[in-house]
Specification:
Amidase signature (AS) enzymes; globular; eleven-stranded mixed sheet; 16 helices; alpha/beta
Length: about 475
Amino acid sequence: MNETDLCFLPATDMADALRAKELSAVEIVSTVLKRIERLEPRLNAFAWLAADEAMAAAAEADRTLARGAPLGPLHGVPVTIKDHEAVRGMQLEYGTWLRKGEVAASDNAMVSRLRAAGAIILGKTTTPEFGWMGVSNSPLTGITHNPWKQGMNAGASSAGAGVGAAAGYGPLHQGSDGAGSIRMPAHFSGVFGLKPTYGRVPQSPVAASDNTVHLGPLTRTVADAALMLRTMAGPHPDDHTSLETLPADYPRLLGRRPRAPRLAYSPDLGHARVDPEVAALVEKAVAAFESELGWHVEPVKTPWGPKGPALARFFWPAHFTRHADRLPEFRDRMDPGFVACIEAGAAITMADYQKKRLEKYAYCAEINHFFDGWDFLLTPAVSVAAFPADRLQPAHWPQHPWDWLSWAEFSYPFNLSQNPAASMPCGLTADGLPVGLQIVGRRFDDLGVLQMAAAFEAVRPWADKRPPVD
C-alpha cells in the first residue's frame, strides 16, 4: 500500500489492520500528517494542527497494542474535531477574532468518548465565524478551499471537516449541523455526512440555538460514519437534551433492511430553486433506487415546505443577536455578512420570538406527521454546486447582505424538526464539482438512514473517487 492509499484507507479497514499488526499507529499518523502538511497551504482545512500530540498518542497506542491490553473500536485511528468543540490544550476559537487565543481546559463529552475508543486527535478543523454561514470563509482563518477546485466554496461551518474527509486527511472527521453544516460540506466536497437525530450525540455545552444543533460524522464511507456515530452517541449529563436510549450497533446492522422502504421524493420541497445540473444529477440518483435497488419511489407534495423560509429567516438572525454587544469592539474584524445578520435580528422582541416559536412547533409536527406515510424522503442536499468562496451567494442567484439560505432550503427544515438526514455523493457536474443527494428519515431512525445510504453506496460506490489535489 502506498502512502496516498494509506491516507484514504477507511477506518474500518484501518482498525482491522492495526489489530492484526499489519500497520502501526505511528505509521498511519505520520503518513497522514505528512499529507496534511503538504496540502494544507492550498486547502486550509485546519485551524489548529496538533502534530506533536498526535504522534505521541500514536506511539502510546502502539505500546498499548504490544502489551496486549484491551483495545477500543477506534484504536490508533486518526480523527479531526471541528473548532466548535473543546479539546484539552487546543485552541477553541470558532473562526472569530472574538475568541482568538482561547484554549480549552478539558475535553467535551464527545471528544472524551472518541479518545476512550482509542482515536487519535489530529487537530481542529476550520469553520466560518461562529458557524453562521454556508460558505467556507472566516475572518480569522481565511478561505478553506474546495479540494475539487481551488477558490471554490467547501460549504458551511464544518467545511474543514468535509475537506479533510475528501482530501485524505485520515478517515474520520467530526462536524456539527445547525442548518446544514454537515450535509452541505458533504455535498460540496463529495463525501458522506450524517446529521443524526437531535440529541443522539451529546453537546457540552448545549448550543444556544433552540435545540437545532446536531453533532455527527463526515467520512468517505457509510460504514465509517456508522462506526464513528456509535462511538460518539449516547446520553450524557452535560446535555439535558441528549437522547435517553443507547445507540444501536450501527456497524453490525448496516446491511440489514427488513422490508422494502416507502420512499418519497421531492425535487424542490414545493418552493426551492435548484440549478438544472444539480437537479438532473439528483433525479438520476433517485431513479437508481428503482432501477438498481428495486424500490418504488413516489414523487410527493410537501405542503409544509413553503412555510420553512419565513421561519429560517426569523430564527437565524434572532439566535445570533447574542453577539450584538460585541459589535462596538469587533465590528471591523467580523464578517460583514455576519454583522448584517446580527443587526437584522436587533428589532426582534421576546413576544415575537415566542409567537414564531409556536409556528415552528406546528411546522415541525407537520413534517413529522408527513413521515407517518413514508419511511424516507429524498431531495437534493443543496441547490447549487460549489461557487467562489469569496461570495455569499452564487453570482447567478439573488444577492442579499446576509441571506445565504436561499440556496440551502433543503437542509434547515430537518434541523428544526430534528430528523436524521444525510448527504450522499451522487455525481459530478460538467466542471467536475460534486453534488449530494439528501436522505431524510423519521426521528430516531438514524439506523434506517445509514442503511439506506449503505444500499445506495453499494450500487453507486464513491469512495474510490478522489479530488485532484495531488
